[in-house]
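User: My advisor, Dr. K., asked me to get a structural model of this assembly before our group meeting. I'm new to this, so sorry if the format is off. These are the inputs:
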Amino acid sequence: MAPRFEARIRIRSDADIVAARRQGRALAEQMGFSSTDVTVIATAISEVARNIVQYAREGEVVVSATREDGRDGLTIVARDQGPGIADVVKAMQPGYSTANSLGLGLPGARRLMDDFEISSRVGEGTTVTMTKWQR
Amino acid sequence: MRVPILKQGEYLIASIQSALTDQELSQLKDDLLDHAGRTRARGVVVDVTVLDVMDSFAARTLRSLAHMLDLLGAATVVVGIQPEVAFAMVQLGLTLEGVSTALDLEEGLAFLQAKAA
Ligand SMILES: Nc1ncnc2c1ncn2[C@@H]1O[C@H](COP(=O)(O)OP(=O)(O)OP(=O)(O)O)[C@@H](O)[C@H]1O
Ligand SMILES: [Mg+2]
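Assistant: The format is fine. Below is the predicted structure of the whole assembly, which you can bring to the meeting.
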């Protein structure tokens, strides 16, 4: 699964969330995703990028075009070296939030995208990898 | 960029002009609350036509804005949510509970007028 295109956005502030969203949108449009999928991708990026700002303060979002088994996909990797998540299963449940927020970001991003993976270690950081496949 | 707020009769209209950062959206909320309090507005229209994303932060901010305006005696109507944005919101599990919505500015104002009558 070699990436054919890759854009890396440093995430440090809420303006970077908008920048990451814009990059993802541009790539999705360029790849020919439907306007609904473009919006879906931008929304998922928004959620994981905000989690970086909110919980880890800084990190990065990498958007890339990938190809697997003859299918084209857009992959988003959001990674940080923040505090990590003690209970990932809990964090993936809708309504679970340690910030008194809606707790919809992670479970919502999973629903928005086709593939979703999260790995996290307390004290080491969190990586979310998700892909939308072209139909 | 600060979102301009226009006064039209008893109503305030905030037309978002470009993608907003979280900070800018929070600023808009504060500005609208401030204006509504000072002008004793009966209703507020927030036009989100240009927003390409309505994520959990935006939804939470609009919900709390509507709730606070309600306490000030002003109704809130959000207009211009694009079909793709609505689709993504539903998938994300977001609702605009307690917030009225309308197709566009004209319908939003008509809604407020009907409510006041
Ligand atoms: N990058 C991260 N680093 C550390 N903790 C995280 C990270 N992302 C998420 N979490 C933890 O997982 C919880 C759930 O995240 P999720 O995005 O689903 O909800 P939220 O951020 O609390 O609320 P919302 O996204 O709806 O505003 C968070 O409250 C936080 O405790
Ligand atoms: Mg979140």
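One thing worth pointing out at the meeting: The mean pLDDT of chain A is 96.

User: Perfect, thanks a lot.
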